[in-house]
Amino acid sequence: MTYIVFILCVFLVGMALAAILVKDLRSAIILLSALSLFASLVFLIVAAPDVAITEAAIGSALTTVIFVIALFRTRKSTEGNTSATVRRVDESARAVRQKETDNA
Amino acid sequence: MRKLIGILLIGGFAFYLVTVGMGLFSAESRSELDSVGSEILATSPDLSGAANTVTAVVVQYRGFDTLGEVTVLFVSALGVGMLAMAIKDGLLKNLFDDNGGFVLQAGSLALLPFIVLVGLYITLHGHLSPGGGFPGGVIIATAVFVVILTSKTLSIPRGLINVMETLAGLGFLAIGFVGLYSPAQSFLANILPKGEFGSLLSAGFIPVIYAIVAIKVASELINIISKLTAADSDSKEAAE
Amino acid sequence: MVSPILFIVVPLAAAFLTVLVNRNAGARILALLTALTLSALAWFWFRADLSTPVSVVIAGIAPPMGIQLSMDRLSAALALLISVSGLLVILYSQSYLKSEEAQSKHYAVLLLLMAASFGILLTRDLFNLFVFYEILCISSYILVASEETKASFEASLKYLLLGSVGSLFMLVAIGLAYRVSGSLAMSDIARALGKADSSYAMLTAALFVLGMGIEAAIFPVNTWLPDAHSSAPSSISAVLSGFVIELALVVLLRISMTVFSSVNLMLPLRYMALAGILIGELAAFGQTELKRTLAYSSMGQVGLMLFALTLGTEAGRQAGMAHLVMHTGAKSVLFLIAGYFIVRTGKREIKSYSGLGRRMPLTGVLFVIAALSLVGVPPLFGFFTKFKILSAAAASGATGAWLGIAVILLGTVLEASYLFRVARTLYSDPEGENVKAVKGRMEMDVPALVAVFGFTLLVIFGSFLLPLIPSGLAL
User: Fold this and answer.
1) First to last CA, chain B
2) Chain C residue with minimal CA distance to B29?
3) Rounded to an integer, what distance in angstroms lies between the CA atom of residue C108 and that of residue C114?
4) N or C: which end of chain A has fewer CB within 10 A?
5) Does B92 touch chain A (CB under 8 A)?
6) Within a 10 A sphere around the Cβ of B57, how many other Cβ atoms?
């Protein structure tokens, strides 16, 4: 039993590190979600089913949803229909891209 | 380089934490730790009447913390609401460009009662089996979210959600007050009859509080999610 | 029967209700009534005989298993300070807040902030403290962001990141403490940590102080303060500078003296305090914006209080508490008036306020009185508190006391020079174009004036309160 917990814990740390190091934010969110799922498994094995249920519901379902919405929102807002600052940043980014293609 | 220094610092801190923390896990401190736990295990059936001791601790022994946790969620939901209000242009538009198609919409609506049922079960059996108001409320909120996800035209009635939220919060406080001005003279004292140990209607006010917590958690999370996806009635009105 | 628990339950209930109130006027009245009730309650407890603290137990379950709240003289005094400043600030916000939509929610968050403050003050359970600390932190982040400018969002995010790390540290410390004691009651933890290995106790104490020190704005972890306090709405700056950091400071010190009494935290904290004074006052000296100057000055003033409270003598503690009361009054006046200057002129720089003192005579006089008290000019409260701190330091013989006296005097000189610079600007250039450009009535609205006047009374007559300040920081 302890070995399973130990292996799962190694998994947990690995996923946490991967979530930090990975470049794509979407992957990071999914990794965090998986981390929560594994954590709830660990809680279940160490005889804490209450915490396991809560962790599964909140960690892997709810926070993932909220993170994804937030990510979606930031994407959408940089698509150019929003506040002046965001639009300005967006325009300058487009200008840089244009310059790069020109140079190429 | 900066990353390396960061990893080294965190690693060193973790090492220190583990060595100092583990080194002290001696037999005597362990026994002292168990004493409160076994005391709770011994007194919980009489004191709370809940078959699930974890629930007894969360609602009865540390019910005040639970009130605080509910408030943490409440203030977070308020914050999301205020921030969403601050962003006047653009972001208030609907998150989704179009509806999810007939199959998805019908499927999500068909799923809704089942997910809600699971949420209700987990909430109402909190004093008997693992679970309780927090995960139950989250599961109910997730059911609503599945519907939001597939339908662009859905409008969540914000007024109703707010009323539920307020009533749940006031209900929690009211139960506390009943305890304070009852013969027990103590805030959140469990004065309802305990019932038969292990049956659905037992453990005094614990199922009631868990139901209230589930309503509050669910309504706050629905509030947050619908605000973020602009699926609430206010955003719909503003968009028109 | 009046139970101390009402301090937490009344503002919570009002906050829950406020969400339903759509009309801003209704939310305002509800918030005002709540603050009035709280002030009355606090007055009752302040006048009550608390030579033995009044304890209440939640759900009838005694401490090792349940949660205990306790009202002692220190808590009662601070509760009075908090509820009265909350009342005055709510009175002030009536005429100050612009963003109409967010108003009712704004009041709800403010009430939650007050509930959390009382909770932190009263609880004798370490985890319960953490829960209320979380409410306090989250509501402060929201209130800072409620100015709804880019700067305030940025400041709030900075505050949030630092504060979350701090909360995490605190949680780890509570976990470590629970591990050796098996209990979350403060008295049990104190006993268990006394018996535990010294490095373990040190680790626990350091993590806790680092975590809570963020809200108390202790020197190395106070980098969020200047941004947050200067870009928040001015009424909120007054709340944050006026009682939130002071409250966190007192509770932190109470816990380090009782729960972590086996660890010698006082010496490092004293040196941190001195560094805070130096850096805060030097930075304040270099600022061009009024609210930023005041925010950095808060950083220095917190150092001053911390220095006095960590001297380890009864006189030092008394002086620190007195200075805390004085700072609440003076800084609230300064921030509230600064907010009015910003509303009237639309500018944040000190130089654009030239001549304002002549156009708004009453406001200008109140501002100067508060500034003089903050510096420590004789007939005002600030002189007595600063003098008490210096004499307590000289008499204590603690390590670093003389260094502290030198730093405090240097800080006072710096403080005097930048506050006099502001005052001179206010009374110079009567025909300046800045003032002419400002339209409308110049003097503050009546509710705002009443609020500022209330705080000014504290600054002027505070010295009569000195004998009322409770001794000791007992648990």
Assistant:
1) 52
2) C180
3) 10
4) C
5) no
6) 22
User: CA B57 to CA B50: how far, in whole Å?
Assistant: 10
Q: List the pLDDT tens digit at each of the 240 positions of chain B.
A: 777 888 888 888 887 777 776 655 554 555 556 677 788 888 877 777 777 888 888 888 888 899 999 999 999 988 888 887 766 554 555 666 666 778 888 888 888 999 999 999 989 888 888 888 889 999 999 888 888 888 777 788 888 888 888 899 999 999 888 888 877 778 877 777 777 777 777 778 888 889 999 999 999 998 888 888 877 777 666 666
| Cβ within 8 Å of A, B 94-113 | 95
SS3 for B141? helix
Structural domain contains residue B170: yes
Q: Does the structure's ipTM exceed the value 0.85?
A: yes
Interatomic CA distance for residues C455 and C81, integer angstroms = 11
Q: Which residue of B has its CA nearest to C99?
A: B86
Amino acid letter, residue A59:
G
Q: Check if the beta carbon of residue B42 is closer than 8 Å to that of residue B116.
A: no
Rounded CA separation C13/C16 (Å): 5
Are C373 and C330 spatial neighbours (Cβ–Cβ below 8 Å)? yes
Both structure tokens of B26: 């001696």
pLDDT value at C475 more than 50: no
Q: ∠C141-C159-C85 over CA atoms, to 5°?
A: 50
pLDDT of residue C286 exceeding 80 = yes
Its domain, for residue B85, covers: 47-239
Helix (H) or strand (E) holding C55: strand C54-57
- Written as one letter, the residue type at B50 is A
Residues β-bridged to residue C54? C71
Residue B140 falls inside a structural domain: yes
Three-class secondary structure of residue C410 per DSSP: helix
Q: What is the DSSP letter of C470?
A: P
- Assess if residue B149 is contained within a domain: yes
Q: What does the alpha-carbon distance between residue C323 and residue B54 come to, in Å, rounded to a whole number? A: 46
**Rounded Cα gap, residues B1 and A2, in angstroms:** 37
Q: How far is C396 from chain B (nearest CA, A)?
A: 35
Place of tokens 């947990």: A12
- Give the residue from A23, A62, A66 with the most B CB atoms within 10 Å of its CB, the best one to mutate: A62
The tokens describing B239, both together, are 């968009």
- Comparison of pLDDT for A84 and C45, the residue scoring more: C45
Specify if B16 maps to a domain. no
- Which residues, 6 or more positions from C265, have their beta carbon under 8 angstroms from its beta carbon? C205, C209, C256
Domains held by chain B: number: 1
Q: Look up the pTM and report it.
A: 0.89
How many C-beta atoms lie closer than 10 Å to residue C360's C-beta?
23
Q: CB within 8 A of C418, min separation 6: which ones?
A: C284, C285, C287, C293, C297
Q: Please name the residue of chain C whose CA is at the shortest distance from the CA of residue B59.
A: C59
Q: Which amino acid is at B228?
A: L
Does the CB of B24 have a partner CB in chain C at under 8 Å? yes
Residue C62 CA to its chain's centroid (Å):
32
